[in-house]
Amino acid sequence: MKIAVLPGDGIGPEIIAAAVSVLKALGPKFDLEFAPVGGAAYDLAGHPLPPSTLALAQSAAAILFGAVGDWKYDILAREFRPEQAILGLRKHLGLFANFRPAICYAELTAASSLKPEIIGGLDILIVRELNGDIYFGAPRGIRESSNPLFLGAREGFDTMHYSEPEVERIGRIAFEAARKRNKKVCSVDKANVLETSQLWRDVMTRLSQDYSDVELSHMYVDNAAMQLVKAPKAFDVVVTGNLFGDILSDEAAMLTGSIGMLPSASLDKNNKGLYEPSHGSAPDIAGKNIANPLATILSAAMMLRYSLGLPTEADRVEQAVQTVLSQGYRTVDIYTPGTQQLGTREMGEAVVKALS
Ligand code: NAD
C-alpha cells in the first residue's frame, strides 16, 4: 500500500502533515513516500512535475496531494506554473472522474452564508469529468480576428468537445454512485446553446435506460447555479463536464460554510486515485498554523475507501472528524462564538485522539 504524498505549496505541507498523522494513527502500516510538486518542485528541480515525482505517482496505489500555487509563479511560462502539475498528473494517470461530496455537518450550519433550513443536512455529490472539454480541446490560441467588425484585433479562441465514449464513462460512474445513494442523477449541460452539450444530453438519456432504478433529470448550467443556492438539497448526484463542473463544485463547496471542509477524489478506470482538498494553496494564510486540515483528512478517508479498499478505516476517520466537530473544535474558517478555536496542527491532533 504505497501512497505517494505530494504536499506542494502554501498551506499544502501543513494540511498534509495533519492528514499523515491521522494515517499513521490507523492500524494498517502504509508506505508513505514524499515528493515535491508544484512551485516547490519548480524551485528544486526546475519543473512543477519532475519525472521522479511522476514516477512515484505512477508506481503508488494512491496519491495524497496537498495544494499547489503561489502568485510569485505567475510570471513563469504556462508550462512551468505550479497548476500544470495537477493537469499533468490527471493526464498521465488517466484520472477522468472527479468526486466532490458537499456535506454540511449539522454543527457547521451557522458557518454557511445560507439559512440553516436550506443547508442543514445537505449531502450531495458532484461528479465532474476531468480529462476533456474546452480545457483540453484544440485548436486553441490567440490570433488576429477575421470578424469584419473587429478585423485585425487580437482574439482568443478555444474548442469544446466531448466524444460519446467520454460522456458514457463519466455517466456510468455517476449512475453507479447514485445507486449507492438516493438514486437521483441530475445531468448539467447547456444543450440549448452548445452542440457538445446536446450530445452529452443524448448520451445521458440513452445511458439512463441501463439504470431504470435511478431517476435522471437534465438541467441547464445557469439554472443549476441558481438551484444550488435556492434548494441544494433537491440534488443527489450532479454529473457534468469539466468546465461547468469546475465552477459548480466550487459553488457547492461554499454552501457548506468553508472550502476547508471539502475533500475530493480524482479516479482512473481502476479506482486508482489522486486525493486532495477542494481548495487551493491559500498563500495568504500559509505558515500561520491556521489552515483547516479537515478537507485533507477527509480526502485521506476517501483514499482509504476508493483506492485502498479499507472502508472500515475510512468510516473511522470520517467518524473522528464528526466527533471533533461535535466536541466544539473549530479552525478559524469555521469558528463561531461558543466553539473552541484550534490551529492546523492541534486540529490534526484532535482527530487522532478522536480515532481512539
Ligand atoms: P484558495 O482556495 O487557495 O483560497 C481561497 C480562500 O480560501 C483564501 O482566503 C484562503 O485563505 C481560504 N482557504 C483555502 N483553503 C483553506 C483552508 N484549508 N483553511 C482555511 N481557509 C482556506 O484559492 P486562491 O486564493 O484563488 O488560490 C491560491 C493559489 O492556489 C493559486 O495559486 C491557485 O492557482 C492555487 N489553486 C490550487 C489548487 C490545487 O492545488 N488543486 C486549486 C485551486 C487554486
Question: How would you summarize this macromolecular structure in one to three sentences?
Answer:
The chain is an alpha/beta fold and 356 residues long.
Name its key features.
binds nicotinamide-adenine-dinucleotide; 356 residues; 12 helices; Isopropylmalate Dehydrogenase; 10-stranded mixed sheet; 39% helix; alpha/beta; 2 domains; two-stranded antiparallel sheet
Task: Describe the overall structure.
- The protein is α/β, with parallel strands linked by helices.
- It folds into 2 domains: 1-98 and 258-356, Isopropylmalate Dehydrogenase (3-Layer(aba) Sandwich), CATH 3.40.718; 123-255, Isopropylmalate Dehydrogenase.
- The chain contains 12 helices and 14 strands.
- The strands form 3 sheets. A 10-stranded mixed beta sheet has the order 2-1-3-12-11-4-5-10-8-9, with helices on both faces.
- The mean pLDDT is 95.
